[in-house]
Amino acid sequence: MSSEVVTEECIGWAARDSTGVLSPYKFSRRAVGDDDVYIKITHCGVCYADVIWTRNYHHDSKYPVVPGHEIAGIVTKVGSNVDRFDVGDHVGVGTYVNSCRDCEYCNDRAEVNCVKGSVFTFNGVDVDGTITKGGYSSYIVVHERYCFVIPKNYPLASAAPLLCAGITVYSPMIRHKMNQPGKSLGVIGLGGLGHMAVKFGKAFGLNVTILSSSISKKEEALSLLGADKFVLSSDQEQMKASAKSLDFIIDTASGDHPFDPYMSLLKTYGVFVLVGFPSVIKFSPANLNIGMKTFSGSVTGGTKDIQEMIDFCAAKEIFPNIEVIPIEYANEAIERVFLHFSLTFMDFASTFKFLTHPTEVGCGFVLLGGYSPILGLLFIFLFSYKILRSRSSAHDLLEFRFGLEGSKFETLGNETLKSIYGVKKKGLDEGMEEKEKDENIEDEVLDVMMLRKLVKIERQRYHAACAEIEKERVAASSAAAETMAMILRLQSEKSSIGIQANQFRRMAEQKQDYDQEVIEELRWVIMQHESHKSLLEDQLGIYTEKLSEYMSDDEIDQLEGVDACRGFLNFSVECDTIDASLETDLQTL
Questions:
Q1: How do residues 204-223 score in pLDDT, each as one tens digit?
Q2: Any residues with CB less than 8 A from the CB of 24 and at least 6 apart, and which?
Q3: Closest CA to 115 of 126, 129, 100
Q4: Computed from CA positions of residues 52, 154, 348, 340, in that sequence, does the dihedral angle turn out positive or negative?
Q5: CA distance 391 to 168
Q6: Which parts of 94-225 are beta strand (E)?
Q7: Which residues form a coiled coil (predicted)?
Q8: CA distance 30 to 27
Q9: Using one digit for the tens of pLDDT, what is the confidence trace for 45-84?
Q10: Is the dihedral of CA 209, 215, 219, 225 positive or negative?
Q11: Rounded to whole angstroms, how far apart are CA atoms 321 and 160?
Q12: Which of 52, 395, 424, 452 lies at a 20 to 30 A Cα distance from 37?
């Protein structure tokens, strides 16, 4: 794999230290190798892993860190050996971008378990020794093996979280055969992982129960996500009533929590899968052994499972619940994830176009302030704060210098005091200048006080505006929840109508086929009747000729009786008699 450095710069957002604060950052990606694809990034999911490594929680961050491993975008270049992708394809990149490709797990398309270790999408060390940079950037170059096809009818924004949150729950669900309709699934935690487990469970035909310690999640679980049951885990009566009711449990919670109460909810042979990362796991062995239960852990998945999951979501129209925000709010998004507020995603398309033109930065900021009065107030506040800090710093520096000089005077003794007296004597003529300086300082102090009052007023207005925005956000969230519930109902009705339409279509096709068969049978009967009629007419002609040889004209006229139908029947009988008599006469002759 080529490690050649491209001349084109990549624009990203990076953390420079353990504060985790992100800011624009220019760096270079490797050139597109023979097996590589060049992906223009349009969206990238915000994951808790971004918090971990930008803030150095594991003490192994390699700064500057460009986070992001839930990447979705469009292919703009391909290497000469690439046969799975073409320019314009929609693709995704997940939590790793390389592996040895030679061990038993890589050969089984389970590269996440590579014996030599898979290379993380960001903050990882690639095979050429370079530090990987993630999806908070304008583009990425990746080996085609670690790219995944996203159907063009599936939104790129929705595809991004599937590549970490989605596969983290999908992979163990498939591995432990949770795709059995009619079985029961319990989901602990209702964040990014939990809500995807619910969606997959419903798509698999499972009866899904949400296990949560927060009663506020009940409405979201039942109405928005369509879960079959909600159990408040802090309510002992509800937990007892649900004992031995679940075939499977997926635990997505990362905070420390007891396991025994949840293990008691499993049926015999039940499976408990842990995908969260609590600091400690404690439960009674009896809860595991009695009932022959299984306790399993899991992380993400291999390339085979990831592509299968994306195709499944596209076919079943499974979409994560997301919020799309501009990249400029990346720091806020990461903080929200850290505080467990919500799962957030970023839109890069317009932002990186803006960042690649440095001359537009100032104009862009002004337009942003003009667009939003709140941001304009925030700009005024920050500008004023900067002025105050600069003056305060100068004042502190001045005091610091005076302090040093004072200590100097105290240590130098009488000679220094004499020099001070001489300076004062020489400075009598400069008294007016010092007085003017004092007046200027007083004016500056008044200016600072006025500025502080203005800042205080603007701060109050800012907080009031933030409160209004929060109210609007809550109202918008409620409206979004209602809209999503309506969409889900409409999708369900659409699916039901589609099923009925298909049934009616099949019934109509079956009726048409049956009518066609009846028509063909009637045609065959008519043909047989016509053939039989023709045969009878021929026989009648023969018998008439024979009768004319043995009977007179009067007898023949009598046989052509008044009742044509009865005559025909009698004629048929008489023909048999005549035929027999003819045979007798011939024998006599």
A1: 999 999 999 888 889 888 98
A2: 11, 12, 13, 355
A3: 100
A4: negative
A5: 52
A6: 96-98, 119-120, 139-143, 147-149, 184-188, 207-212
A7: none
A8: 10
A9: 999 999 999 999 999 999 999 999 999 999 999 999 999 9
A10: negative
A11: 11
A12: 52
Residue 372 pLDDT class (50, 70, 90 cuts)? very low
Task: Output the CA–CA distances (angstroms, integers) from residue 157 to 44, 74, 161, 218, 348, in the order listed.
Answer: 8, 12, 8, 27, 11
Q: Tell me how far apart the alpha carbons of residues 270 and 249 are, in angstroms, rounded to a whole number.
A: 8
Q: DSSP character for 301? A: -
Nearest to 154 by CA among 305, 299, 349, 309: 309
Residues forming beta bridges with residue 5, ordered by sequence position: 30
Q: How many CB atoms neighbour CB 294 within 10 A? A: 14
pTM above 0.70, yes or no: no
Pick the CATH number of 165-299 from 3.10.450.50, 3.40.50.720, 1.10.1330.10, 3.40.190.10: 3.40.50.720
In the chain, where are the structural domains located? 5-162+320-355, 165-299, 369-506, 530-588
For residue 404, give both structure tokens.
């040093």
What separation in angstroms does the CA of 472 have from each of 42, 346, 466, 469?
28, 21, 10, 5
Contact 159, 320 (CB under 8 A): no
Yes or no: say if 4 and 54 are a contact pair by the CB < 8 Å rule.
no
Rounded distance between C-alpha atoms, residue 249 and residue 316, angstroms: 23
Cα 292 → chain centroid: 35
The C-alpha atoms of residue 434 and residue 83 are separated, in whole angstroms, by 81
Look at residue 43 in the predicted model and tell me its pLDDT: 97
CATH 1.10.1760.20 for the 5-162+320-355 domain, yes or no: no
Q: Helix crossing, 373-412 with 431-550: angle to 10°?
A: 150
Task: Measure the CA–CA gap between 22 and 36, rounded to whole angstroms.
Answer: 28
pLDDT grade for 523, boundaries at 50, 70 and 90: confident
Q: What whole-number distance in Å separates Cα of residue 408 and Cα of residue 56?
A: 45
Helical (H) or strand (E) element with 372: none
DSSP track, 500-565: HHHHHHHHHHHHHHHHHHHHHHHHHHHHHHHHHHHHHHHHHHHHHHHHHHHS-HHHHHHHS-S-HH
Bridging pattern class, strands 22-30 and 119-120: unpaired
Residue with tokens 């928005």: 224
Res. 367: pLDDT tops 70: no
For the residues 558-575, what does the mean pLDDT come to? 50
Q: Look at the block and give the residue holding tokens 């500008």.
A: 383
Residue pair 74/87 in contact (Cβ under 8 Å)? The answer is no
Cα(18)–Cα(54) distance, rounded to whole angstroms?
Answer: 6
Beta strand ranges found along 321-431 (DSSP E) = 324-326, 345-347
> Do the beta carbons of residue 147 and residue 85 sit within 8 Å?
yes
> What is the distance between the alpha carbons of residues 579 and 39, in angstroms, rounded to a whole number?
98
- pLDDT at site 368: 31
CA distances from residue 199 to 24, 44, 148, 164, 181 in whole angstroms, order as listed: 36, 21, 21, 15, 14
